[in-house]
User: What shape does this take?
Amino acid sequence: MEYKSYASFDPNFLWGAGTSSFQVEGAVQEDGKGLSVIDVMQKNPDITDFSVASDHYNRVEEDVALMAELGLKVYRFSIAWTRIFPDGNGEVNEKGVAFYDHLINELIKHNIEPLVTIYHFDYPQSLVEQYGGWLSRKSIEDYRSYAEFLFKTYGDRVKYWLTINEQDHVVRIPTRLGLTGDDHYEQLRLGYQANHNMCVATALTIKTFQELGIEGKIGPAISYSMVHPASSSPDDVLASKDAMLIKHNYLMDLHCYGKYSLMFWRYLEERNFTPSIEDGDLDLMKQYPPTMIGVNYYFSEAIRAFPSTEEYPIGYQKKALLPEAEAGVFEVVNNENLAATDWGWEIDPVGLRLTLRELHERYNLPIIITENGMGAYDKLEEGDIVRDDYRISYLREHIKQVQLAINDGVRVFGYCPWSFLDIVSGRNGMSKRYGLVYVNREDFDLKDMRRIKKESFKWYQKVIASNGEDL
Ligand code: BG6
Assistant: This one.
């Protein structure tokens, strides 16, 4: 819908930017940090590992000063669980506690609100070895008590908390659960059990947060994006609805309503994927839903029906990390209406407006955009210039749609592009850059790690200063 006039961003709108611990900190073996599943996973010889990353661990003051120069109102970062509890449980590592204490104090000193992700992919390896990690119910209490420690230590200064980053990705990417082997269907079955345990852990953590009387908001950071039917054929429309349930809504239905919809349960049953559930689990989730949603949005997907055949019987899945094609359900196809990034991620700003509206209509919670951005092969030119006008255009068009969604009635209270500075991309190392700030290193040449403001930094600075008027 078009409007004749529309409202500006709220004066308290939280303009931000984000990172995650393992993608920026480096110092993986320093000051008592324990190993995470990321540190031990098999290295891809073509890209860097995460051992040095953007060297943020040693450059906190410099990085926070740049955030202040940018004008950030909020900074989203994650805490490395294994800096606080090297074994995931048991002994506390005081040096790790002090690191985040310092970071948070630096942010507050510069009037930047900290937005803390409690756990962003870097699960303690020791918990995998102790009892199988998220596959065991023991993981629930370890996560809750780690979060409780963070609330008690930093809760006087941190008002916004994200429980688990992209749980749906964690449960589908075997290395992030600490799983080995290549039995795809068995890993999916285990993934749904891990998913259930994470939902119980999230609800218990929200309960603890509320019992401690922490003032603020808490909720998951989800990867959630509206899908489009590839055509107006009713079969494609139906497949797109099924895809929304299987890719996204099953999880939010658990977090917000403590329910497995009948249809999703049948989907699990027919595939032998049903998790074991204990009495009281679903009630607990229902009783302690999130008080905000963090949404990570990069692209949308077009969906068409994928009828089963003798060759591809019901349930056959293309062995992809994330659900892309499943016989009898749906298949992701190219959307010819959209341009894509160099990695094939289809750029769809209107898809963000649709995503926000869908979340609002189904779950009606305040929303903060915790990730949105464009990975690109940035080029550092003479004179320390990075002309990333493609990124400016990506962010501008998405921010316009956020404003429209707000006018549609969606309660969006903040926007954090991904990422504040160049991070090591999860699957593509340093060649796929996201930052507003360039980090002068390559995959295998660490150079000087100098911080260089990209053109997008200068543009976003004006956006923030004008509260979204000067796009
Ligand atoms: C999200 C993650 O899935 O996507 C980030 O929360 C990640 O950690 C981002 O960096 C982009 O993905 P990638 O694979 O390009 O780094």
Notes: Residues 18 and 54 are 13 Å apart (CA to CA). Residues 20, 23, 165-166, 169, 223, 296, 371, 375, 418, 425-428, 432 surround 6-O-phosphono-beta-D-glucopyranose (CB under 6 Å).
